[in-house]
Design a protein that fits this description.
The complex is a heterodimer. Chain A is α+β, with helices and mostly antiparallel strands. Chain A is built from five helices and nine strands. The radius of gyration of chain B is 20 Å and the shape is globular. The chains are: A alpha+beta, B alpha+beta.
Amino acid sequence: MAELKYTKDHEWVRLEGGVATIGITDHAQTALGDVVFVDLPEAGRDVAAGEACAVVESVKAASDVYAPIAGSIVESNQALADDPALVNSAPTTEGWFFKIKPADEAEIAALMTEAEYQAFADSQA
Amino acid sequence: MAESAEILLETPLASLHRELGGRMVPFAGYSMPVQYPAGIMAEHLATRAGAALFDVSHMGQAELVGDGAAAALEQLTPADIQILKPNRQKYGLLMTASGGILDDFMVANLGDRLFLVVNASRKHLDLPAIEAVLPSGVKLNRLEDRALLAFQGPQALALLAPLAPALAALPFMGVASTTIGGIPVLASRSGYTGEDGVEISVASGQAEALARLLLALPGVVPAGLGARDSLRLEAGLCLYGNDIDETTSPVEAALTWTIGKRRRAEWNFLGAERVRAELDGGTKRLRVGILPEGRQPARGHTEIAVGGTTIGEVTSGGFGPSLNGPCAMGYVAREHATDGTKLDLMVRGKPVPARVAATPFIPHRYAR
């Protein structure tokens, strides 16, 4: 499995076969608490890097999820509509949010490594 | 952020919260646990299934002592305080001069004095307002050396029985000075969850010992402000600052049941002119329960529309763990306040279909 890259907004990105899968990190799901609803982008939507394109709702609050890179949405995770708690139980696998066809794959390379993200998340605690 | 820069007060249970892994957040000037590691969902469901312990020591506790205390307090509230029998408690509203709600509060008749519990965020306003109307001979004592614990859930009283036999016989809204495991307490059979349970006032120095005693009972979990909020929302209970405030009247807030019958004849409480006019002529808006379709919650301040026109605003909204769906309350124009009325909640610019619904969303299970 390809390595994950990370953003300061607590998303992760996995590039496989020219498509980037995006979700929120374990750190983020822990902070949010029990996820009860996820609002996902439609396939075909073009997004800019940093654009809010999904919303994750916990019992307590709603939070935006941002596109880490520019590109076109190719798929959203329909399993989250029936079982939003997948975001808590499997944040970096079954709990993915959406897939993007990147406009420029180099944007992914520029994101944080796991070690860099861990240091960043710790610095925020 | 200004909030994190200010010095936060702690309750007598602060070290216990840390030991239990509570996630502390600023609330009404206090550092309070919003949740423990189990999370809001688990804490909420545990309260409805068994029993949970909440620290609500941030709330203001006070007593009114002296002849005429009840009549004095009635100057600020439309509740009938004089009719309150010894060892009984009731819910009421403190008023502003313009007929808005200064705060909501609980008042108990302890025989020789009245015992008051007011909101943490409002106690700095409530207590001076009460003091300002007291005749000589009636005194307000702030009980700053007391903690307040809420022990809530269908198993709460059964679990307490071996430690506090006197509590089992307490009726809903009854109050008793007794002991729990030898610790002197003032307990009332009441709460803010819709479940049976007690709220327990205890000397600060014995609060942690009492909390540990209750947490050691079988199946009892600590629960934070997050679960307290989702429980009270499902129970249809107002949160001051969200659902009621100085701009809302008791009539608009659908809290006219707190106005005593005698008080409706006397009209001698602060702000009575507005209340009387609204009871006679109706209000432009009313607080209602709201059930959104689907699973998407609509939070406080969400615009409510009918046919593209704004007709109100959500004041509290979230996801009800026991309801297993979203629920909310808010104010709507009176013509749209009937149960079943279809509404659109404008969540992030998109209409979410919803309907006006009776509260509580989860039936109350109070004692008797």
